[in-house]
Amino acid sequence: MVHPTPPPLSPEQRERLEQLADAARLRAALYPLPKPPPVRRRSRSRQYPGGRPNPWRTARGRRRG
């Protein structure tokens, strides 16, 4: 498919576009995206497969000291 050519930019528009591109590149270099925190997995022992919490009396009977 052939893309239509955009209308030519005026010198002012071209200058503004170059400034914005430079600013975006500088921001990306100075402030890299932070790494997402590690995924915390819930232990399966505390919950049924459906995600409902264990009944109170069964969870209470497991305490051993």
Question: Can you characterise this structure?
Answer:
The protein has helices spanning 11-30, 56-60. With 65 residues, it is mostly helical.
- Please trace the helix and strand order, writing H or E for each element: HH
Structural category: mainly alpha
Radius of gyration equals: 29 Å
Shape: elongated
**Integer average pLDDT:** 77
Summarize this, please?
With 65 residues, this protein is an all-alpha fold. The protein is 38% helix and 0% strand.
Topology (elements, then pairings):
Layout: H1 11-30, H2 56-60
Feature tags:
mainly alpha; elongated; single chain
